[in-house]
Amino acid sequence: MDRATFACSTAFFHDSSTSSQAAPGLPGGHVDFIEKVDSFTYSDFFRDYLIPNHPCIFSAKFTEDWGSRRNWVTRDGKPNFDHLLQKFGEAVVPVANCDVKEYNSNPKEQLPFREYVSYWREYIRNGYRSSRGCLYLKDWHLSRAFPEQDVYTTPVYFSSDWLNEYWDAVAVDDYRFVYMGPKGSWTPFHADVFRSYSWSANVCGRKRWLLYPAGQEEFLKDRHGNLPFDVTAPGLRDRRVYPRYDQSQPPVEIVQEAGEIVFIPSGWHHQVYNLEDTISINHNWVNGCNVAIMWCFLQDELAAVQREINQWKDPMDDWHLQCQLIMKSCTGIDYKEFYNFLKVIAENRISVLEKGLDEEASAKDTSKAAISTLGMLHAVFDLKRTVKVLTSLSANEDFRKLDLTSLSPPPEALLHHLKAAIDTALL
């Protein structure tokens, strides 16, 4: 029986390669540490972490064959600036200033990579101080800009990746990033885009993570319903401002070493610090296990927009459309694009079930390559999860108020096609 067969059945088994380790400094807080590559299967990850939405850490053995870990790092474990400049010196990169708060994040600017490396080297020489502040290279789409570079290979555990499968198909964007920053750079408190999963691998350096399970963030909101910028700020203990802070649990703390990969569950808020000069590779992704969470997030986002502009509902003829436009500007997607997102994933799975796995096509198509690795039953699982969310979307009042004539095929026809494909595959 292959890995996907185990993953899509209930006949799971316990694997001794997973051990529970206490997180430093937190009584009772822990994450699982996955040590061995050979004995930890996709189905183990599916059963123990994706479905229950639990974090874990993969050992450095899972990344030791990456090109970035061989070439981007000096012998003493520091960023290899000379090599990076040789490969990417002419790139322009997004850089955030960690010392400045702008709304709920740090302001960003575009800098030549060569200038950023020059700043970083000077920052180190000056004892990690600069009049420019602490600058952090974040959300760099390096894989998209330099597809020919041997940087890393996505581990099989994260290969069922609907977000990047969709955005690759429409050739607009992707959610694969490189982060580089000096000791002391950090990312404020947040949850990831669309409440997606994320994985983060340290090419070099160390990170400290503060993780709050989904739902805990409600206790961290101030009396106006706003989340804190910094969960370590002393002001959170002021009950007049943060009335529910005392009900919150301590965060789960992880210290991530060089080479290790951290898996962040869907909807878990977190804050991250670089304890050393650090380079990391990060993906956000959604699949059949958490697409329903993404759909709930979109409904919550639309409801928030509707509350904000409710006073203009009556005089505005296209109020519902305006709400969708505002939501898309804030989150990156609206209901109609979410439909197209589900459609692309579903049609890819139907194509595989109807035509089988062509080896040559799979080599060129990352979505088919992933299904080829995970098995046909995983494609059926994906279709079943898509049907559930698509059924809910099709019945949603706000969706039905939109002009749906541009959607092809219509939602009812697509649902019928999906259900028929599932029935045929299970015969």
Automatic annotation (TrEMBL):
Biological process according to GO = positive regulation of translational termination
Alphabetized UniProt keyword annotations = Iron, Metal-binding, Oxidoreductase
Q: Which domain of life is it from?
A: Eukaryota
A Pfam family of this chain = Cupin_8
Q: What are this entry's molecular-function GO terms?
A: 2-oxoglutarate-dependent dioxygenase activity; catalytic activity, acting on a protein; metal ion binding; sequence-specific DNA binding
Q: Which cofactor does it need?
A: Fe(2+)
Q: Which reaction does it catalyse?
A: L-lysyl-[protein] + 2-oxoglutarate + O2 = 4-hydroxy-L-lysyl-[protein] + succinate + CO2
Instruction: State the family named in the UniProt similarity comment for this chain.
Output: Belongs to the JMJD6 family.
| Span of domain JmjC | 143-302
Q: What is this protein called?
A: 2-oxoglutarate and iron-dependent oxygenase JMJD4
Q: Which GO terms describe its cellular component?
A: cytoplasm; nucleus
Q: Which PANTHER family match?
A: 2-OXOGLUTARATE AND IRON-DEPENDENT OXYGENASE JMJD4 (PTHR12480:SF6), ARGININE DEMETHYLASE AND LYSYL-HYDROXYLASE JMJD (PTHR12480)
**From which source organism is this entry?**
Neopipo cinnamomea
Give the lineage.
Eukaryota, Metazoa, Chordata, Craniata, Vertebrata
Q: Which SUPFAM superfamilies match?
A: Clavaminate synthase-like
